[in-house]
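Continuing the batch. This is chain 6 of the set; chains 1 through 5 are on the previous pages. Same settings as before, nothing changed between runs. Recording input and output for traceability.
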Amino acid sequence: MTALTRPGTRPARPYFSSGPCAKRPGWTPKALDSVLAGRSHRSKEGKARLKLAIEKTKSILGVPRDFHVAIMPGSDTGAFEMAMWNLLGARGVDVLAWESFGKIWVTDIVKQLKLDDVRTMEADFGRLPDLTNIDFDRDVVLTANGTTSGVKLPSYDFVAADRKGLTLVDATSAVFAQAVDWSKVDCLTYSWQKVLGGEAAHGMLILSPRAVERIETTTPPWPLPKLFRMTKSGKLDLAIFEGDTINTPSMLCVEDYLDALVWAESVGGLTGLMARADDNAAVLHDWIERTPWIANLAEDKATWSNTSVCLRFDDPEVKSLPAAEQAAFAKGIASALEKEGVGYDLGSYRDAPPGLRIWTGSTVETADVEALLPWIEWAFTDAKSKLKKAA
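Output for chain 6:
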């Protein structure tokens, strides 16, 4: 393929952003026609829609019946902050970070909550920390899937079944696309804007009975803002977990989330959603295997994400460039693809090594991933030819 030959097929939906992600196939604003516009979320009808969102979430994800699910403000970030502020402090903490958001949780635990007994386990982009070093007598904080590194947990087998501490999992780019072993999780959070392509600003908080026990028996040593308070008279405020949200939610976003959940049911529920993400990622993974100048940022295949696939350019000439020029090369390719209208938001995250990041979650169509690849090859060939001319 020469630099001047553009591929003939374009992705029908060139939306590969890692958040907010592509809407579900066939989505139009008409999906929101039944929204309770101008109605209170505390009305009978409003509470019913919020409760339905929680019930469908539990059903599709297979959340155990004795777990609690709530809608939170502030997307996944708000939900996970709420978890940390309510659950941490009773034990020492092992916090793991191998990408940008995990590092944020490290900062919050060390510099904001200022816990005394913290062990930080970090790894470079593309790798996991050594999971065998975790002490499950302590509380453990980690991400299930590194959105900015494309490195996922291979499984939950490393989590001790007889743990004394709690396991807090930020699963925003994993849930609905990767299996969750609920027996190994005490708190899990995510946002609507990732795998289901819902609207942003709202997060989900899922608590195990062990997490509830911690909340009801331990008072955090710091003041809790109103948005973070989950108890009433020392007990978990169950109304929050039945749709009586702490603050005013967007009923427009709620309706959009419900639409996404109904679509999820139509494609086979959790099994169907995971299969769609696996099929999408497999297109990229197979292409990586047969393309010498591209590589997965994740080094171990067992950790290759099926939602947030992060790529680095493995071409010797590109790798020999100074860091700033490597970054410019990658940005140039992402810009060329966007200019052609074949792939939007493909640049790697600002903190990550230079490259591309392609979302392959359940709302993406496999045919669109397939159509994107020749365009990446075209843009790379064109960028390489410009490098040679400049040399």
